[in-house]
Amino acid sequence: MNNSMIKQSFLQILQYNIRKSSRIQESFLINRKVREFDIVVIQKQDCNNNDSQSFSSAHNFFHLVKNSLSQSRTCIYINKHLRFNQWIVETAESDICLIRILTRNADDKTQMLRLLNVYNSCSLSTTFTEKSLIISRLNELLKNDCKQLIVENFNLHYSHWEKWRCFTRHTTTDTLLNIITNARLKLLLKLNTITCEAHN
């Protein structure tokens, strides 16, 4: 790979939970502003709508990374203005997609970034103690020395990041927090940012 061709010093990343709505997905993918992003990370996409006009339009501007299973709940759209030899798919599972992409850091040196799109199913029981398979799989994938960015929908409540309005607490979160600490990750989202207004 010719590293001199890598120009991105930052990436514009958009995350969206489609909630399996074909209507939302249609309008989202044909939105011109969406095409301005380098990477679009989607959770709970409508997998039954792959032949729609919006999907055809999106493929004119993006490469699609997803698992072939119909119940897949994560995918990544990579803008075609990023060079094909600048990124690679590491894994594409039903609830985790992982790509590696070359960027430039503040010192204008190339660095490898691992971008993970993770979806964890919402458990009705907040005291369910059995370890989530997705959380366990995430722990395996994070054992890497590269820079890593997780774009996620964990569906977990915990006062650590919802101090003033969290009335429920999932015990699985303790495991997740240990994983995050061991991987030396930090939260980029501002504290008390509302990410879903429809639920607590």
Q: What number of structural domains do the residues give?
A: 1
Instruction: Spell the H/E element sequence.
Output: EHEHEEEEEHEH
Gap from first CA to last CA: 47 Å
**How do the strands of the widest beta sheet line up side by side?**
1-2-4-3
The CATH level-2 architecture is identified as 4-Layer Sandwich
Q: Tally the helices.
A: 4
- What is the CATH first-level class name? Alpha Beta
Which whole number gives the mean pLDDT?
78
Total number of β-strand segments? 8
CATH fold type: Deoxyribonuclease I, Chain A
Evaluate the radius of gyration: 17 Å
The class by helix and strand makeup works out as alpha/beta
Low-confidence stretches: 1-6
Shape: globular
The helix content is 10-25%
Structure report:
- The chain has helices at 22-29, 53-58, 133-141, 172-182, and strands spanning 13-17, 39-43, 62-66, 74-79, 87-92, 96-104, 110-119, 147-153.
- The strands form two sheets. Strands 1-2-4-3 form a four-stranded mixed sheet, with no helix packed on it. A four-stranded mixed sheet has the order 5-6-7-8, with no helix packed on it.
- Strand 3 (62-66) and strand 4 (74-79) form a beta hairpin.
- The protein is 17% helix and 26% strand.
- The chain has a single domain, classed as Endonuclease/exonuclease/phosphatase (Deoxyribonuclease I, Chain A, 4-Layer Sandwich), CATH 3.60.10.10.
- By secondary structure, it is an alpha/beta fold.
